[in-house]
Amino acid sequence: MENRGNIKRELSDLAIFGGSPAFPEELYVGRPNIGNRQRLLERINEMLDRKWFTNQGPFVQELEQRIADLVGVEHCVATCNGTVALEIAIRAGGLTGEVILPSMTFISTAHALQWQQITPVFCDIDPVTHNIDPKRVEELITPKTTGILGVHLWGRPCEIESLTEIANRHGLKLLFDAAHALGCSHNGRMIGGFGLAEVFSFHAAKFFNAFEGGAIVTNDGELALRARMMKNIGFLNRDRVLYVGTNGKMTEASAAMGLTSLESIEQFVAINYRNYRGYRKALEGAPGARLLAHTESEKSNYQYIVLEIDEAAAEVHRDKLLKVLQAENIMAQRYFYPGCHNAEPYRLSRPQASAALAETERLVDRVLLLPTGSAIGVDDINLICQIIRFVIEHGAQVTMMLEAGSVPGPQRRVSDDARV
Length: 420
Prior knowledge:
The structure is a single chain. It is built from 15 helices and 14 strands. By secondary structure, it is of the alpha/beta class. The protein has 2 domains: about 140 residues, Aspartate Aminotransferase, domain 1, CATH 3.90.1150.10; about 230 residues, Aspartate Aminotransferase, domain 2, CATH 3.40.640.10. Helix 1 packs antiparallel against helix 8. The radius of gyration is 23 Å and the shape is globular.
């Protein structure tokens, strides 16, 4: 049952102003999902009995086949993490020179290029979808451009057809960072089979995890073969090296966790969907708070609850709301602040980049991700949203008090209509 004792009725009830935190323990954007613990331990014991811990063991082989089947592709190459998977896919795909990508992404997307002395060229986004804007991509193509790296942000697909048409017309390679998008679809087709290759992350914070891991998925057999060699130090077989490679192999322990996660993936998605619907209902009509919607006719993992805070309408800035929430042990986060173009080494090497990234600059100042996943319940969501609505209802006063560093006395109670 919901703990109504933690409802915020007066400004002095807010923890940042001296009240008790709404939650005794911190709630995170993504606590790791575990699945069937007993089945995981059984697999770990199988691994120990076999004494085959790495080097393309049976669990890795099984996970690769099951991921390929899930997304409907011919090849899956499992790796130690998503960043290494992206680096290998970029190299196996033959990208060089300049590659166009959004700045609104995790910094490793850009680093995977820069690490290989490929210049990331940052493109602005569509303000509605938060994904790379194809209309802006064409403006950035130069004789040095060899590829486009789209990002399916929040698991919502890019404008794949438009990007494909642009890539084909200009003779460019098209890759997708699908770190957020396992289990999502576009026009009824699973993410994973688009472009030259797509890359998944199985990091612990993802709804599907392998402790740590990643994968390259593709229908290009030659690219898959190159990627397999590159993740194994360049070895074709025991004695023959064909490529400069790295050690990007997934361990059997990670694959055991991945297989266990796969067995519970529908349950994880159902929990995420329940949470998403709960947030939508509880925040409906809140001034200045836009919850990013998913297309429910498509498959989605619903693993991110993305809120945009419009300071003008809410009368409180996203960062001030964030401080209030974190004081309540609601560990919301800014993603992907401040944008890759404002992080090093890109900020110093391209100081004028922000002028061409107006929508990205606007969005990184507004986005707030809220706790979800199997560690969060419906009552938790209702209380989180009650606090958000309460802060927005008193936005101007909260802003003034935070800027003044003051602690209020008793304030008027929140109206019944504003409670969740």
